[in-house]
Amino acid sequence: MSTLSNVETGRGQANPPSVRVLRSIEATEGRLAPDTIPEAKSSQTGVSVRYVPTPGKSWYVFRASYGREDWASDYIVEDGTFVYIAKRYVRKTVNGKQKKVLETLIPNLLFVYTTEDKAEEYVKNTPALSFLTYYYNHFELDENQKNPPLTVSHKEMENFIIATCNSSEHLKFVDESQCHFKDGETVEVIDGMFKGVEGRVARVSGQQRVVISLTDVGLVSTAYIPTAFLRVK
């Protein structure tokens, strides 16, 4: 699901996704076709930005305090920059009735595809985004012996988007202790809602799922995947 599609109606029910998600995966170089990734869209103005792989840009991870990642995404998208926030449907009681609403899968985090200079502008030189900070890479040091801002590789990010853009209510953000891995082999999902996802097979919450890794951020598990839908890489 692309960012900011969880705008609630007056009755508290989330609007249906407004973006078209294509499930075909481009075989060339193992990369996604740009049209596979949903547009980032502002809920306030309707401005949309499509992801276009561009030299000099990286996937930065930003942290927004107090759950303001959607507000930050609105601002950044309206500035012409692509943003992705992973969402999932959850069931909640709203006005005494059970509703399916969209929530951020990884609280407070947004993934921004931009240049180093633009990322610095958003985090350090934009008063409207004073609540925004970098998510730092705690496993590396820069020339000043400080942890640099975390960037996620294109391959990992695209895999993460395939796994989460359907907003399945069975998606989980998990830690390793919750995953009982079958073995060390990498598999690809070849059919169903999660077609194209690559990861490791694990039992999570008593079900066979595929778990993907987002380096230094965490693990995300799909919904149940039957063995017939899996192919060893």
Write a brief structural summary.
With about 230 residues, the chain is mainly beta. The chain has three helices and 15 strands. The chain has helices at about 70-80, 115-125, 155-165; strands at about 40, 50, 60-65, 80-85, 85-95, 95-105, 110-115, 130-135, 150, 170-175, 180-190, 200-205, 205-215, 220, 230.
Write the layout of secondary structure elements.
Layout: E1 40-41, E2 48-49, E3 58-64, H1 69-78, E4 82-84, E5 87-94, E6 97-104, E7 109-114, H2 116-124, E8 132-134, E9 151-152, H3 154-164, E10 172-174, E11 180-189, E12 198-204, E13 207-214, E14 218-221, E15 230-232
Antiparallel strand pairs: 1-2, 3-7, 3-8, 3-9, 4-7, 5-6, 10-14, 11-12, 11-15, 12-13, 13-14
Structural features, described:
There is one protein chain. The chain is mostly beta strands. Helices cover 13% and strands 33% of the residues. It has helices at 69-78, 116-124, 154-164; strands at 40-41, 48-49, 58-64, 82-84, 87-94, 97-104, 109-114, 132-134, 151-152, 172-174, 180-189, 198-204, 207-214, 218-221, 230-232. A 6-stranded antiparallel beta sheet has the order 10-14-13-12-11-15, with helices on one face. Strands 3, 4, 7, 8 and 9 form a 5-stranded antiparallel beta sheet that branches. A two-stranded antiparallel ribbon has the order 1-2. Strand 5 (87-94) and strand 6 (97-104) form a beta hairpin. The protein is globular and about 50 Å long.
Question: What tags apply to this protein structure?
Answer:
six-stranded antiparallel beta sheet; mainly beta; five-stranded antiparallel beta sheet; disordered N terminus
